[in-house]
Every structure is written in structure tokens, then in C-alpha cells.
């Protein structure tokens, strides 16, 4: 999902939210806080670290309705702690949406984390 470098975190999220009529803004707030994106709010996306951009992309993917979520290397720029947090959140949203996931990763540790949570 394309992140717009000249926009801040909220504006990047709002672009996705504007595409759907049934967006739950309390869910957006929850996801932003869970992924620790709220404190960086006024910063433009181009000034975020790669991990912050990755978390922003995950947030944008999870706020919209879906029946299948396709994740291509979603944790490539995240440390183990943020990978585990994001995995818990993704699993929670998958259950809420009664959705499927297609996941790709070259990292064995990502597969191990997923085996503990998403695939159980």
C-alpha cells in the first residue's frame, strides 16, 4: 500500500478511511496506539523510520473492511518486539473480520512468530 511521504500519519490513514463509508474511528485510534503511531503524529511520512513506515502501512491495511488480507513481507523493517505486537494485532483484526490471511516472508523468525499466533 502506497504511503504518501508529504502527508503526516493521520492524513495517510485518512486517505484510506475516506474510501469506505463504514470506518470505525475508535478502531483507527486503537490501532494507531497499539502500533505506537500516535506520538509521531505530526511528522510527515518521509521523515519516519522504515519501521514506523511499516507500522503505518500495517495500520492502513487493518482499518478497512476485508475478507482476505495479503501481507507481503509485512515485518521486514520491524524488530522482534514490534513484529510480535503487529502479529497480535493482525490476528485480532482477522478474527473480528472473520477473514483469511496470505502471508509471505523470507525470515524464519517471522514464520515462528506466526506459528505461535496467527496459524493456531
Summarize the structure.
By secondary structure, the chain is mainly alpha-helical.
Account of the protein in words:
The chain is mostly helical. The chain has one domain (9-116): Rossmann fold, CATH 3.40.50. The protein has helices spanning 9-17, 25-34, 50-62, 80-97, 108-116, and strands at residues 68-72, 100-104. It has a two-stranded parallel ribbon with strand order 1-2. It is globular. The mean pLDDT is 88.
How is the secondary structure organized here?
Blueprint (H helix, E strand, L loop, with lengths): L8 H9 L7 H10 L15 H13 L5 E5 L7 H18 L2 E5 L3 H9 L4
Parallel strand pairs: 1-2
Helix pairs in contact: 1-3
Order of helices and strands: HHHEHEH
The poorly predicted ranges are: none
Query: How many angstroms does the end-to-end distance come to?
Result: 27 Å
The count of helical stretches stands at 5
- Secondary structure: helix percent: 40-55%
Beta-strand share of residues: 5-15%
Using the coordinates shown, work out and report the CATH topology.
Answer: Rossmann fold
Biggest sheet features = 2 strands, parallel
Topology, number of strands: 2
Strand order of the largest sheet: 1-2
Domain module count: 1
**Highest-level CATH class:** Alpha Beta
Amino acid at each position: 500500500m502506497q504511503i504518501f511521504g508529504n502527508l503526516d500519519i493521520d492524513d495517510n490513514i485518512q486517505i484510506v478511511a475516506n474510501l469506505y463509508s463504514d470506518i470505525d474511528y475508535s478502531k483507527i485510534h486503537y490501532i494507531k496506539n497499539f502500533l505506537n503511531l500516535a506520538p509521531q503524529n505530526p511528522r510527515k511520512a518521509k521523515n519516519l523510520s522504515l519501521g514506523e513506515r511499516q507500522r503505518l502501512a500495517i495500520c492502513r491495511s487493518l482499518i478497512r473492511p476485508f475478507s482476505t488480507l495479503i501481507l507481503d513481507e509485512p515485518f521486514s523493517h520491524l524488530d522482534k518486539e514490534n513484529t510480535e505486537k503487529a502479529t497480535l494485532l493482525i490476528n485480532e483484526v482477522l478474527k473480528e473480520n472473520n477473514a483469511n490471511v496470505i502471508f509471505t516472508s523470507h525470515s524464519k523468525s517471522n514464520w515462528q512468530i506466526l506459528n505461535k499466533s496467527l496459524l493456531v
